[in-house]
Write a structure and sequence with these properties.
The protein has about 130 residues and is mainly α. Helix content is about 40%, strand content about 5%. The longest helix is centred in the middle third of the chain and has 20 residues, at about 40-55. The radius of gyration is 18 Å and the shape is globular.
Amino acid sequence: MAYTDQSQKLTIALQGGLQQLNGTQVEQYLRFRDPINGEERRRDRQEQAVATLLRQMGQAAQLKRLPSLIAELRPQVDTNLSPQEVLSLMAVALQPGQSVQFQSLSLRPALNAKASMRELEEQRLQPRWP
């Protein structure tokens, strides 16, 4: 995967095949939107990365690191959840047999070509909880 996007100042240079990626490489992998399959393939890669991360974090050695990892990442995340609530949600997500469900939100078309923000299409919103 080789790609350069001047507008985002993004350069992606990944080799093919099974490998362990560092944080920068994961970001490159997740941000790439190829001209043919576009957003759909990018969502597939994002789902694959989350599933892989959850599988790795579910290993016994990694579970011990969760409290310190949550504390380390907390300043970088804006949430009203307490560290205990985050840890509780992670414990549920990491249980064997659990899977994460992904949903896409319908967005209105951009107001202009340079718009960086888009609004939700309210009439197409689905309930968040079953």
